[in-house]
Write a structure and sequence with these properties.
Length: 305
């Protein structure tokens, strides 16, 4: 059976060579025990040996992950060019952003996503509502019901711009993985990062779609036909295998510019905004994302992508 071109956390862990990892963990425990109990064993070489063993373990895990990513280049749709829809629109939100989601949907009536005629039916994008916690709770089901009511109340001409069924996904974040900044320009926002990197590695998404439009609920459309343009852009981008297409900051919030400069560099305001098109299932892009996630976490993903 051909391996799917996707990368989830479970896939990464299950594919590791557990015998190597367990053996090295056992050695680490033995060395640690020796450091604590053997007074004749000098401390400095002991600690160096313990540190070296930890580094080797980290390298094994990293090499195995990169091996998994390499396998993606020989996946089903790379080998046989299986058809994938060009675009999925992902709307990430937290429990504190429900009103923003509803407001964004109301803007679709004033600024229609697509033209009334001439749209290829085959390229209707899917919309996915991506919740930070669990949608299986009582509150989660209430959220789905309320957003669905607003969606179904939109004119049929608006809903016809998208595929017929809306999708839902839970990030299931808890604890320290579910922290968010109170300021839009704040660097450290673990929840935002975990949601982004999670959806980029989600097999159920990457095997069906070529590009993702990551659209946070504070985004407002300003021109009619914006969804048609995104579909056209994703089709064009796929021809050149473009990883990411977005826009630099074009606002006038000087406080945000100063905040970015203090946290990153003076020119950080020129970064591509996180609300952008992202190529899905690309092995090279996933390898790059893995690198920046590990090296710069928990810096905001849109400052390093």
């Amino acid at each position: 059976m051909t391996r799917e071109c996707c990368l989830s956390t479970n896939d990464m862990l299950s594919s590791l060579r557990l015998k190597k990892v367990l053996a090295l963990l056992y050695i680490l425990l033995c060395i640690y025990h020796l450091c604590l109990n053997d007074l004749e064993f000098t401390k400095t070489p002991c600690l160096k040996l313990f540190s070296l063993s930890g580094y080797i373990l980290q390298r094994i895990l990293s090499l195995e992950l990169h091996s998994n990513i390499d396998m993606m280049e020989h996946s089903a749709y790379h080998r046989y060019n299986t058809y994938r829809e060009p675009l999925i629109m992902v709307i990430p939100f937290t429990s504190g952003q429900i009103e923003r989601v509803l407001h964004m949907l109301s803007l679709f009536e004033r600024v229609p996503p697509c033209r009334p005629q001439g749209r290829p039916v085959r390229h209707l994008p899917t919309v996915l509502f991506y919740y930070h916690a669990s949608l299986e709770t009582h509150f989660g089901k209430w959220i789905q019901q309320n957003i669905s009511q607003v969606w179904n109340a939109l004119p049929i001409s608006i809903r016809d711009c998208f595929s017929y069924d809306i999708l839902w996904k839970s990030a299931n974040l808890t604890g320290i993985r579910d922290l968010y900044s109170k300021w839009d320009s704040e660097a450290y926002s673990a929840g935002t990062n975990n949601m982004f990197y999670g959806i980029m590695r989600d097999c159920s998404i990457t095997r069906k779609y070529q590009y993702m439009f990551y659209c946070e609920p504070d985004v407002s459309p300003i021109r009619s036909g914006w969804l048609d343009k995104l579909v056209e852009l994703s089709l064009l981008s796929d021809q050149h295998k473009v990883w990411m297409i977005g826009s630099v900051y074009m606002g006038h919030d000087f406080g945000a510019v100063i905040s970015w400069a203090l946290q990153y560099t003076r020119t950080a305001w020129k970064h591509l905004n996180g609300n952008a098109l992202y190529r899905l299932g690309d092995a090279s892009f996933l390898r790059y994302l893995y690198y920046v996630e590990k090296k710069y976490y928990p810096f905001s993903f849109d400052m390093i992508c």
